[in-house]
């Protein structure tokens, strides 16, 4: 796994402590999260992620610290696309704001496990077949070009194969039942009590599947930055931990980041191409500090340009 067991156990203990603090203290009771609270919690999670990056820099060295921070920034930006899809899912299933945090919390737990599996498999394959890094790099370049030049249609959740499958194979309630994912009620055909899944659970399943799809981009991106499994996983998880908190602010102003997607496409092209560029100019790898600087500059330019171009637009309720 690249690092001592105590480092992995310490990181997992830290993540568990953060989640326990979030659920057990900050959100012990269900309540709607307002934009102000969302921003404050996001600032806290970003600070924790950066503080962990500072520890990585101090304990493992500058190269590891820069690799972690680059991965953290890239994953955080990629997560913005995920926010748009999550908002569509919540809207389609008419999930009340009061219960959205519960869905996102359990979604994060699923992400922690799924990303561990995907990154573990990826690290094993890269260790055995180093040429896979070039495949990842080429995939990132092609993905970036596709994002730049091909217009993507808005997902049609009503015709989603998974939604149709769940409605066909399981008993599904027509309405929400508070914060419950499962409820027992009378079967309309037999009159006997049986288990039903609620729209809240269907929303959770779709969010988990959406993360797997987004991980197809983000996992190769981070492996193109560093092949250290510890840095790959920790930067991924710290970036995603804050997504739940940031969602409630971003969902209300996602239109303000309209021009961030082209910037993200350029970042993916850059991250993928720098592996080939390093080979062409005879470097073992692209300078980590330069990579972080260019990545941050591209993303910052996209954010600033988006905010400037949409400054006169009203925030949708």
From TrEMBL:
Membrane topology: Multi-pass membrane protein
Organism, scientific name: Pararhizobium antarcticum
TM annotation in the entry: 6-26, 38-58, 78-96, 103-125, 131-149, 193-215, 230-250, 262-282, 288-308
GO CC terms of this entry: membrane
Record-linked NCBIfam families: R_switched_Alx (TIGR03718)
Highest taxon listed in the record's lineage: Bacteria
Claim: Ligase is one of the keywords in the record: no
Protein family membership: Belongs to the TerC family.
Protein name: Tellurium resistance protein TerC
Localization in the cell: Membrane
Keyword match Transmembrane helix: yes
A Pfam family this chain is assigned to: TerC
The entry's keywords: Membrane, Transmembrane, Transmembrane helix
